[in-house]
Amino acid sequence: MDYQDSNSVQKVLSEVVSFEDIGALWRGFSTDNEKEQVLDNNRRNDKPIRESTLLPKRKAQPKSCGDIMQLLIQLTKLSTTISSDSRESDESKSYLETNLHLKEMDDLISELLSRVIKKYKKEICFNEKFIKRYSFYFLITLQLLQKINDKNKRGLLAVSIISGFNKMVVLDESFHSFDNEEKKELFLLLIKLANEAEENLGVPFKFDDGAILNGFNTIVLDYWNKVNPTKSFADDLKKSKNYILPEFLKSFDFHFLAEFLHQKLLQIPIEIRFEYCKKFMYELEENKNLDSKYDAIRFFIKQDSQMQYQVNSELQLLKNNHNIDAIKRILLEIE
Q1: Residue 50: is its pLDDT beyond 50?
Q2: Three-class SS string for 86-110?
Q3: Mean pLDDT of the chain
Q4: d(Cα 92, Cα 108) in Å, to the nearest integer?
Q5: Which residue, of 44, 187, 217, 236, is most buried by count of CB atoms within 10 Å of its CB?
Q6: At what angle do helices 180-201 and 133-146 cross, to 10 degrees?
Q7: What is the pLDDT averaged over residues 297-301?
Q8: pLDDT tens digits for 60-81?
Q9: What is the pLDDT of residue 13?
Q10: CA angle, corner 189, sides to 134 and 70, nearest 5?
Q11: How close are the terminal C-alpha atoms of the chain, in Å?
Q12: Contact 266, 304 (CB under 8 A)
């Protein structure tokens, strides 16, 4: 695969499934020293060198970022063992052994994810020659999360992956220059991770109010004038080229998008964001698309006490009593 060709990377990433697949891809991110370390480990184990089926005789203890490949090799071997356990004739023995192996897999994947995040923050996020490096980050970490059995650990790791990305956006000045289509692809993957965190931890997920919100600023600028910003945002994301399965998009709860947009909206100075809401208030005075305009006002004043105060004050200047009463009811609804 050509790591500098966008189409080539996207095609290969869409086909990643196994630990072997991840290992084969990861070689492209390895430094010469890290590749040499893997070769040395395999020479010591007297194993013939193959692309992605090297299995050490004993479990190596990772000591540096260069041991990511060794962890992937261990997981490949352990995955084979677990498959073998499931075919054992002694069901009680198989159950106990499989549980132990699954816990070991969870621990190894946790260690692997920690090292992937560390290596990205230290090196890869600055390396612009790797096209779609953040797509690689999200897709690989999502694939690894899918293989973790402990729900709580899976949720906490999803939060760690998002937190790691937040720090990368702070460090990587080039991220702000990514085009909007690329950012939309990444945002959908980010939403998938947020969904993993919320589902497995059982608590609402909120995006960090710093780098991620600022990093994706350019993809939401066109929605504030829409009568339904969340729906318009969701529709555009669905149309973008992305790695997310159609089944996920159909069933996905887009409350994350509404939450994200509200957090973004609160970053805008009150004078500017009130102008958006004020526009819809005066269109109501002219009886234009009443229902949709009420929904737009509801969106803008939700979770925003400053906006609610401004809207309440502006009501004194309106003349259409029907609309004044309707907006007052909306204000009462969201208190």
Answers
A1: no
A2: CCCCCHHHHHHHHHHHHHHHHHHHH
A3: 79
A4: 25
A5: 187
A6: 20
A7: 90
A8: 444 444 588 888 888 888 887 7
A9: 64
A10: 55
A11: 55
A12: yes
Alpha carbon distance 88, 60 (integer Å): 27
User: Which residue type is seen at 329?
Assistant: R
Q: Using one digit for the tens of pLDDT, what is the confidence trace for 135-178?
A: 889 988 988 998 899 999 999 999 999 999 999 998 888 898 89
User: Which residue, 264, 14, 4, 263, is CA-closest to 138?
Assistant: 14
Q: Which amino acid, residue 293?
A: K
Q: How far apart are CA 158 and CA 302, in angstroms?
A: 28
In angstroms, the CA 26 to CA 112 distance is 12
Which CA distances in Å does 34 have to 37, 38, 74? 5, 6, 16
Q: Give the predicted TM-score (pTM) of the model.
A: 0.78
The CA-based dihedral angle spanning residues 152, 156, 159, 164, taken in that order and rounded to the nearest 10 degrees: -150
